[in-house]
From TrEMBL:
This is MHD2 domain-containing protein. Residues 859-969 form the MHD2 domain. It comes from the Eukaryota. InterPro entries: Munc13_dom-2, PATROL1_C, unc-13_homologue. Residues 83-105 have a biased composition (Basic and acidic residues). PROSITE patterns: MHD2. Residues 76-105 are annotated as: Disordered.
Length: 1032
């Protein structure tokens, strides 16, 4: 005989369970796309689809991979495969002698009494230990199958939860009509008035003729039932009572259905048996083993006979009596008893008005208390649970047939579920396994109803899908309470189950919103994903608001629930959206107007989620995801800024003007800087303060590039100052001859606009323009940053902690830009000053100044240099501010001192001096100082003194006697061999206390002793050969 098929979910059942999943149907129904692996000799009909990991199978099939179904076989398929595999292994190991012995043993077994054969090898006739364990595994797997919307369970309460094994179909498959007949047979044996009995018959829908026959046979053993009590022996006695004089008074079905009822009892007893089967040779060959397992196997064989007779009935009755009386009573097994009681509870429903309780329902239930106790429901808790089970089944039928179309009357579904909730006592957690099974069915159904409440509860559901029934919020509230009470009775974490239901519904709702958002995408240009996400964010926020307005209070009203339970819905919505959002952000979208609108929409969504879910909603930490996008945007903008600098410099002609207006390139560059800053602050998304520093440093680099280009556009500065001439010694005849041939050079006559003064001034005005504007920009950066962060804070979680950046981040934001501009201004001013002294005034200084000596020369500082310098300062002063003018003046003073000292130390063979010249030189130094001090309106006295100090020191050396200078030179040479002269840290400072300066003073000394000393110590020519220009 084949093994049992336990807890099987067929293919059609799986399709019904997954009817909302079109992708699943396409894979299940299209056999050509299935790639499934089965054990040898197993077919697709052996698969228990209830044990299949459906999402995992779909994913494997999507990847064109093979899916192994060997672990999802029915008990019979698995047992058959295991047996065949075992047999093949044994065949390889058995010798010819062992095979012969096994054959002989099997032949002997066939000749034995059937009961003895079943005792020797239970696998041949019934479910043995191996089959039992396999069936138990299948029953456990069956509990993982979701209940359908309109069905608690065809065989509910499920035996998987109670721990009992379902009776295999080959032994018994009592349908509703047969259960109703058996239930009526029970109440026919107790004292009930005829009106009540008729009401029960009508409620059970038992045929009148059948009912009369049942009552007739019940009368024969009514006294015995009154004496012994209600038990399953009633059905056995009715079966025997229907046999008179070896004649069957009823049809075969009458006897078989009662025989199957006894099988229910025997199966339950067999599952509890713990008797070890002894070896066949230790048993009494004349005494059959009447265990429940053996009796079940024999009854199964007898049920398969083509015809039955009175002897058949008596034999079955005798076996059952013997098997049960030997060790067990005839009390109803748990599952069988509550199934019968559930049928009897139909009497409480009104037989005229559909889906309503009868007015005397409570009395009817009261009259069945004795029967309920005999069926395994001895207390109010168990009876109330079964009452809830029966009422919920009726409510499911009403929901399927009526739905929301019940007119102006009270919802029948609401009334029924209200009654069901009254029957559940959440304080009672110690319930029997069979009641736990019924309560578990209620829990499974209610959790199924709650797994997508946004789509089934109206409002907020507003769809027109005919295949998805809808319920009202009040009905939803009752279902939540039933789920909560059922979980408490089963000792489960009710809050955790409600949280999971909220999460499931949120996931299903987000999946629909996501599909809607993608369908509504009509963007032809730009980032389509960005537009879809923006729509999804708006729809998700609306869904959170709808949940809060219509459904949240119904969950919180269930006793024991709290904010973390209801907050899971909003938290799950946020989590699902965050996954999509972060995936999009991780792809590196450009921060365009579309993408920024999508990011800004997160703020409204998060506010809606937090308003609904409170602390349960995790912050959407945008800053961690958008930081890379912000820095990418910054890199692009800074690169663009550098390109603008290159373009501005390439087209700029630096044309001089009569006013202080900056050049166009400076204006264009400043506009680009402003646009970059405004664009950054216009992002209005969370960003770390380091992004602000990166922006300002990028602007600093661009400013430095522009400033450096402005300086380089003046040309090279290396050839402004002429090289130092070769040293010569004094020769009076040569000096006199040069003085006679001297012709004074003419002063410069070209306008300032055409020379270096005009070119330098236009650069100074432009650089100072940028410096002033950047100063004002920097003052507004911090306030704009704070405003940006205030707006961006709306995208953060309301309860998120805001980290205040340290003040050091905001110190000297654009200091490098200021330094670059100031350095450029200083370089331009220096370039202009030395160009004025060495190019514009080159002839006046290098040729005219002190051409006939200090005492007799009409060409001195006051006549050759200061008038022209005064004109330069006047030209500059009207075009720049006082600070820039002073910079120019300071460099002009430095260039003046440089050219002055050049004449004294490197003036050529015609320039000779005496110690008494120092008095006139000091007067000219005083004149120069007063000129640049300008009566307190010019340079600072400290700056003037510092810049003219090298000339003062040189005058001191010139005033020294020749003998002292010669000795001093030799000392300095020896000293500098050990310690070389130190370079000054100031560009305008010139150290004159060196051997080189002392030698140059001796070479230009108008004294024969000095010339003689030089001639004695050096090889220096007497003529002006090699004379050339130089300056320092």
């Amino acid at each position: 005989m084949d093994g049992p098929n336990d807890a099987v979910v067929p293919l059609e059942r799986l399709v019904a369970l997954e009817r909302d999943n079109a992708l699943m149907l396409s894979y299940i129904l299209d056999a050509h796309r299935l790639s499934l692996t089965l054990p040898p000799n197993a077919t697709i009909d052996d698969v228990n689809y209830g044990a299949v990991d459906v999402p995992g199978m779909i994913e494997r099939l999507r990847r064109n991979e093979t899916y192994d179904l060997s672990r999802a076989l029915t008990a019979s398929g698995a047992a058959r495969g295991a047996a065949e595999t075992e047999q093949r292994a044994r065949n390889k190991e058995l010798t010819a002698t062992e095979k012969a012995n096994e054959t002989a043993s099997l032949e002997r077994a066939k000749s034995m009494n059937p009961f003895e054969a079943m005792a020797a090898n239970t696998k041949l006739g019934s479910v043995g230990e191996a089959d039992t364990s396999s069936a138990a595994r299948e029953s456990s797997a069956a509990v993982r199958v979701d209940a359908t919307f309109f069905n608690l369970d065809d065989d509910a309460p499920t035996t998987a939860y109670s721990g009992e094994l379902a009776l295999p179909e080959l032994y018994s498959k009592l349908n509703d009509a047969e259960l109703s007949e058996l239930a009526f047979e029970i109440v026919a044996t107790i004292d009930l008035d005829s009106e009540m009995l008729e009401a029960i018959r009508i409620a059970l829908d038992v045929d009148e003729d059948c009912a009369n026959a049942v009552q007739k046979y019940a009368q024969e053993h009514k006294s015995s039932v009154a004496e012994e009590g209600i038990s399953a022996r009633i059905h056995l006695r009715s079966m025997l009572a229907a046999v008179k004089e070896f004649t069957l008074l009823e049809d075969e079905a009458f006897y078989k259905k009662r025989c199957r009822a006894m099988c229910e009892l025997l199966w339950s007893r067999q599952c509890d048996e713990q008797v070890e089967i002894t070896d066949a040779r230790d048993q009494d060959d004349n005494e059959p083993s009447l265990t429940a397992s053996n009796v079940l196997s024999e009854i199964n064989r007898m049920l398969c006979l083509p015809e039955i007779d009175a002897l058949w009935v008596e034999s079955v009755a005798e076996m059952i009596e013997s098997a049960l009386d030997s060790k067990y009573s005839f009390s109803y097994s748990g599952i069988f008893g509550i199934r019968l009681y559930e049928r009897l509870l139909r009497v409480m429903f009104d037989q005229v008005e559909d889906y309503a309780l009868a007015y005397d329902a409570q009395d009817s239930i009261k009259s069945l208390e004795r029967v309920a106790s005999s069926l395994g429901l001895p207390d109010e808790t168990s009876r109330g649970a079964m009452l809830a089970f029966a009422v919920v089944k009726q409510a499911i039928v009403a929901l399927e047939e009526v739905g929301l179309d019940y007119g102006d009357d009270t919802s029948p579904i609401f009334s029924l579920l209200s009654k069901a909730r009254e029957g559940l006592d959440r304080s009672q957690t110690n319930v029997s396994p069979q009641i736990a099974s019924a309560v578990n069915s209620l829990l499974c159904w209610s959790m199924f109803m709650l797994r997508d409440f946004m789509h089934t509860v109206t409002p907020p559901a507003a769809h027109d899908e005919q295949n998805v029934p809808r319920i009202e919020p009040d009905v939803f509230n009752l279902i939540v309470c039933i789920a909560y009470d059922s979980a408490k009775m089963l000792g489960k974490d009710a809050e955790a189950l409600l949280r999971e239901a909220c999460k499931q519904s949120a996931r299903a709702e987000y999946k629909r919103l996501r599909a809607t958002g993608m369908e509504e995408d009509n963007v032809t240009d730009g980032d389509a994903t960005s537009a879809s996400l923006r729509i999804i964010a708006q729809l998700t926020a609306s869904a959170a608001d709808s949940y809060s307005a219509h459904l949240e209070r119904h969950i919180t009203s269930s006793v024991g629930s709290n904010s973390p339970v209801t907050g899971c819905f909003a938290a799950q919505l946020g989590e699902d959206f965050k996954n999509d959002l972060f995936s999009w952000l991780a792809s590196g979208p450009r921060l365009t107007a579309q993408s920024l609108e999508t990011i800004w929409s997160v703020g409204d969504l998060q506010n809606a989620l937090v308003a609904t879910g409170g602390d349960a909603v995790e912050p959407i930490r945008l800053e961690e995801q958008t930081s890379i996008l912000v820095f990418t945007w910054l890199n692009e903008k800074i690169d663009d800024l550098h390109k603008i600098v290159d373009r501005c410099i390439s087209v700029e002609r630096w044309k001089t003007k009569n006013d202080a207006a900056p050049v166009p390139s400076a204006v264009d560059f400043l506009r680009a800087v402003n646009e970059t800053l405004d664009g950054f602050f216009g992002l209005r998304i969370p960003a770390h303060v380091s992004a602000l520093r990166a922006l300002t440093e990028g602007i600093d680099a661009a400013v430095g590039k522009y400033a450096n280009a402005a300086v380089l556009s003046l040309g090279p500065a290396d050839d402004i100052v002429p090289p130092v001439p070769e040293l010569t010694r004094y020769k009076k005849a040569i000096v006199d001859d040069l003085h006679k041939k001297f012709v004074a050079a003419s002063p410069p006559r070209a306008p300032f606009e055409e020379g270096c003064v005009g070119a330098s001034t236009v650069r100074l005005t432009s650089l100072k323009f940028l410096l002033d504007k950047l100063d004002s920009l920097e003052k507004g950066i911090i306030s704009k940053w704070n405003e940006m962060q205030r707006v961006a804070s709306m995208l953060r979680h309301p309860n998120a902690l805001h980290e205040v950046p340290k003040a050091a981040w905001f110190e000297d934001l654009m200091d490098l830009a200021r330094q670059s501009l100031r350095r450029a201004i200083d370089q331009v001013a220096n370039h202009m000053a030395f160009s004025v002294l060495y190019r514009d005034l080159g002839g006046a200084v290098m040729h005219n100044l002190y051409a006939h000596g200090v005492q007799r020369s009409a060409h001195n500082i006051g006549t050759e240099i200061l008038p022209y310098v005064n004109g330069v300062l006047g030209y500059v002063a009207v075009r720049v501010d006082s600070s820039t003018r002073n910079i120019v003046a300071s460099h002009l003073l430095q260039a003046t001192v440089s050219a002055w000292m050049r004449v004294l130390l490197n003036g050529g063979p015609g320039r000779v001096y005496r110690p008494e010249d120092v008095e006139l030189l000091e007067e000219e130094m005083e004149l120069v100082s007063e000129f640049f001090l300008a009566g307190g309106q010019g340079l600072d006295s400290v700056d003037v003194a510092a810049r003219i100090s090298p000339m003062s020191a040189l005058c001191t050396i010139v005033s020294l006697p020749t003998e002292y200078l010669c000795g001093q030179y030799l000392e300095l040479v020896e000293k500098e061999k050990e310690v070389p002269p130190r370079e000054s840290d100031r560009d305008f400072y010139y150290d004159v206390y060196t051997a080189d300066v002392t030698l140059r003073v001796l070479c230009h000394r108008a004294e024969h002793a000095a010339s003689k000393w030089v001639k004695a110590h050096f090889s220096i020519g007497k003529t002006e050969g090699g004379y050339s220009m130089f300056g320092f």
